[in-house]
Amino acid sequence: xxxxxxxxxxxxxxxxxxxxxxxxxxxxxxxxxxxxxxxxxxxxxxxxxxxxxxxxxxxxxxxxxxxxxxxxxxxxxxxxxxxxxxxxxxxxxxxxxxxxxxxxxxxxxxxxxxxxxxxxxxxxxxxxxxxxxxxxxxxxxxxxxxxxxxxxxxxxxxxxxxxxxxxxxxxxxxxxxxxxxxxxxxxxxxxxxxxxxxxxxxxxxxxxxxxxxxxxxxxxxxxxxxxxxxxxxxxxxxxxxxxxxxxxxxxxxxxxxxxxxxxxxxxxxxxxxxxxxxxxxxxxxxxxxxxxxxxxxxxxxxxxxxxxxxxxxxxxxxxxxxxxxxxxxxxxxxxxxxxxxxxxxxxxxxxxxxxxxxxxxxxxxxxxxxxxxxxxxxxxxxxxxxxxxxxxxxxxxxxxxxxxxxxxxxxxxxxxxxxxxxxxxxxxxxxxxxxxxxxxxxxxxxxxxxxxxxxxxxxxxxxxxxxxxxxxxxxxxxxxxxxxxxxxxxxxxxxxxxxxxxxxxxxxxxxxxxxxxxxxxxxxxxxxxxxxxxxxxxxxxxxxxxxxxxxxxxxxxxxxxxxxxxxxxxxxx
Length: 573
Hints:
Mean pLDDT is 89; it is low at 1-9. The termini are far apart. This protein has 23 helices and 13 strands. The protein is α/β, with parallel strands linked by helices. It folds into 2 domains: 21-226, no CATH class; 243-570, Alkaline Phosphatase, subunit A (3-Layer(aba) Sandwich). The protein is 54% helix and 11% strand. Strands 5, 6, 7, 8, 9, 10, 11, 12 and 13 form a 9-stranded mixed sheet that branches. The protein has a two-stranded parallel sheet with strand order 1-4.
């Protein structure tokens, strides 16, 4: 029988698709699915390569797509390497490189969060303890279910992203290997395009260059962290050992404050933007001006300047330790090294000079071994101040209650030794909602009266849906903290009361915007003219509100300035 006759006798053998259309349809579906999967894999890898590590670098609206018109040279180099590798090692190499790109993408997403909250990049060596603090913040602000849900979502996202990008790189590698000639031509063409856009400095969006090496730059910066942190550890050991006040006898310390009650108050998130930013200052400046007038009427004088904080958006303990130790503490490694040593702190200087030293720490909800390092005789935390009212989101109690507790437990006693009281305010802590209101001092009691105040205010989850509301809530919280301190001083202060209060850091960029300074206001208030005379050389300005040209010191410089001014060398006579 001829081939023609065979075909006519059994047409299914000549054209199987006509005999089994369901198989043909299934084949088309599989091919389409394969194409879609490959396109998605390419898109995922491309986005992992070119997406910036800061949300602020992505323009809003119709300009957003233009930010992704980029040529990733690092991706081109990886494909070229995979193409020249022997077949037996190509697949394992693709797995390793895919997993690495996935991990870098997770770090990039974490960087986005760090820049949004702390105005800096994530340190993969030192910053892991901050995740525990973040969990506690979410738990305190949004409840246990919200915190658990956030952890589960974050873990699933991280693991899923690493697996998805690894799979995508493996798929694209297999495709390039099957079409080696076309892939090699594409690599050469894209490399040439990269050289061209570099030469032209091409950009469609200001600050976002078409030529991209974002993933390679992130890998390089991340790899450098380990040796940088080792060098910083050694540098810190040298810095902390240098201390000209360490061995000064007690009778030569703080002679200008003998017989005084000194209060050092940290106002959470009180940054320079609260004064310089027009929108924020519209609410904060009137409070500062009114406070200056109230203090003047009560016989007090205020002088103000600025300090540059080692942190922004969070990490209050870094600022507190820098201020009290006189050493620059801008990361966890430095902080842990500091508090495990015996650095002579400002608190210890008061103790050596014969003052009683106490701390009022409403933000301390767990054991706080650092208290011994700082040198407190006694610490009052969130459990020991007698508060029975509700929390205000993250803040365990209002600032006014903390000051009432200070007065009741220490400074209001008829007979008490000259005291240094370090007070940490938390009412202006993120998320700034709800914000307490001032009440009569004699009605505070155990804080139960704050229950209706919390119930009748907008909660953090609602406020954080509106950027304008966030800024307004922040400004009101700063105003409340300052009002609390001024009201306490004019109500309970004496001619022997001296107050130093300062911000610990600027609030998050969602309030300040990008590229805000790290400066925070600092103010000294006293009734005794002799105290103020000792700081004439500082150049600080009158009132609670420093001007734009007020002096700016690094925060670690304050301790030595203060001990010098109020020691024998600072006596104006």
